[in-house]
Design goal:
single chain; alpha/beta; Rossmann fold; seven-stranded mixed beta sheet; 7 strands; about 35% helix; globular
């Protein structure tokens, strides 16, 4: 596969350079909505029949560690957290802030064997923005990424994409039809999935389970 997807990483790094370590630096315009997304992502646990005392959680595409900040602020202690990102710049920010947490700089498309398995993996915002990629190129990348990351999940993976059911679509966002994603998951990944479209944002979240 071509490395066109790295254009998206460069875009996020430009946001970090411009805005610094905050939600704007990860290209999120609204902190309240971001916290809603985190809550929805973590709800993957509540729909799983497999319960243990503490879950290994990977924040795939962790940015500057805003999910970890959310977990700490809300005293959510159900997870042993690790972060992973394709951008070394974002990982460096995380390692500076959180000395006792594990952060991984990794391109899973090239280095899949370097990533261990986790109980749950979340990909918040990894597949919502395609930047200047075409829809077809982004869809190819999304399919490959979902399959590779799901291989590393012992229980389940949560990720979000933009909805097609909006008043207008932005050219830089990845608006993915329900049936297109469902057909792909059913055919190539798993038949055990849930789509969440009940939280008021112009996107939806998929939970996919082993």
């Amino acid at each position: 596969m071509s490395e066109d997807y790295k254009i998206i990483v460069e875009h996020y790094e430009s946001c970090l350079e411009k805005h610094g370590d905050n939600h704007y630096g990860c290209n999120w315009p609204n902190l309240e909505d971001l916290h809603i997304r985190f809550s929805i992502m973590l709800d993957i646990l509540n729909f799983s029949p497999r319960k243990i005392n503490k879950y290994l959680l990977l924040d795939f595409g962790c940015g500057t560690g805003l999910m970890l900040e959310y977990l700490n602020d809300n005293k959510i202690n159900l997870f042993k957290y690790s972060g992973c990102d394709l951008s070394k710049k974002f990982i460096s920010v995380c390692e500076t802030k959180y000395l006792k947490k594990k952060f991984i700089h990794l391109d899973i498309i090239k280095e899949r064997d370097k990533l261990n398995k986790f109980d749950f993996i979340i990909m918040n915002g990894v597949l919502t923005e395609k930047h200047i990629l075409s829809f077809d190129d982004m869809w190819k990348y999304a399919q490959l990424l979902i399959k590779l990351v799901f291989e590393k999940a012992k229980i389940g993976l949560a990720f979000n994409v933009m909805s097609k059911h909006v008043q207008w679509e932005r050219n830089d966002l990845f608006h993915l039809p329900f049936d297109m994603l469902a057909n792909f998951l059913d055919r190539d990944v798993t038949r055990n999935y849930i789509f969440r479209n009940d939280y008021g944002l112009y996107e939806y979240t998929a939970y996919i389970y082993k």
